[in-house]
Structure formats: C-alpha cells, structure tokens
Specification:
Largest sheet: 5 strands, parallel
Number of strands: 5
Structural class: alpha/beta
Distance between the termini: 12 Å
Bound molecules: adenosine monophosphate
Order of helices and strands: EHEHHHEHEHHHEH
Radius of gyration: 16 Å
Low-confidence stretches: none
Oligomer: single chain
Strand content: 5-15%
Helix content: 55-70%
Number of helices: 9
Amino acid sequence: MNIILLGPPGAGKGTQAGRLVSDRNMVQLSTGDMLRAARTSGTEMGKIVADVMDRGDLVTDEIVIGLIKEQLESGKTGGGFIFDGFPRTLQQADALGALMDEMGLTLDHVIEMQVNDEVLVKRIVGRAEEARKAGQPVRADDNEESLKVRLLAYYKQTSPLIGYYYAKGMLKSLDGLGTIEQVSKDIASILDA
Ligand code: AMP
C-alpha cells in the first residue's frame, strides 16, 4: 500500500506519517526531512536550498524528484511508502506517477487532510513557542512571515493536486482538525476499506 498525505503546512502530515511507520511498518518519505538533513550535514545541495526553505518557498522540482527517486530505488519498501510533503507541484505529481509506473508500483490513496487556515497559523506559531520554551530547536521557517509564504505556495502550487488526484479517482479527504487519535482512525478506515 502506497499513499500520499496531502495538506497545508501544519495539517499534521508528519505526525500521522510517524504513526503509520510504527503501526504498519510503512516507510515515510518526507522531502522536508530529507532537505533538512542535507542542510545539517552541510552538503552542496543543503547550502543551495537553505535560503529558499527559510523563506518558505518551494525548492526546485528537480531537487525533490531526485531525492524521491533515490529513496524509491534504495529497495527499502516495508509495508509501503507514505509520501509526506511530496508531491507539491503538478510536475512533481507527474514525475512520481512516471517513476512508480517504471518500478511497477501503484499509488493506492491520496489522503487530503483538510484544516482551517486560522487554526494552522495558531498551530505552527504555537509549535515554535512550545519548542522555544522547552529549549528545543525551532524550525527556521516556523514563524508568521515564512508561514504566509508557505501557505501561499500551498494554495498556488500544491492545492491543484487535489483536483488532479480527484480526477484520477484516488482522492480521499478527511477532517484534519480532529484529535490525533481521531485522524489516525479516519486514515485507518481508508487504508483498511
Ligand atoms: P515540510 O517539512 O514538508 O514543511 O518542508 C519544509 C520546506 O522544504 C518547504 O517549505 C520547502 O521549502 C521544502 N520542501 C519540502 N518538500 C518539498 C517539495 N516536495 N517541493 C518543493 N519544496 C519542498
């Protein structure tokens, strides 16, 4: 079973992906995590993407498609892939479809996590404040200014994927505003249907 978790920043994609990894042995492919790891390890690519990420804009399709290709070809499949934060543009969605076809993989569901924008902003700014109080590292893009850019990128570049996957008959939408437990249950009922 291979799925995409689709939704704006702060919708809870990472949290739900983490649960699917522990509950179902699925493999989480988060391009955001891969890019942050590249920055931490100081690779050339990490340096190239740093400013773009901090600003809240999308990095190039070429870079993220390359990262995903590498992971798909690594042979680690577990209980299936969870694409988390990828694809974010129509070009990425087409590239993913082509890559999966080539490898004989199928995309089973695209799960759209719907959330209200005001709640998102509060969640993300709250996430940063909590981390700061606890003395934990705060994501450089978890501030109101970058968040606006990230939301705009979502609506301009990523939200067309909702129609794209609907037309392909793959879209399942759920209310992302429930408790973590409730959202997990809703996802499980899609996966186990
Ligand atoms: P995330 O952790 O998914 O919120 O991603 C953090 C940042 O990484 C985004 O704001 C983008 O700058 C970059 N990024 C992550 N995934 C992608 C993607 N699929 N396409 C373009 N940029 C991405």
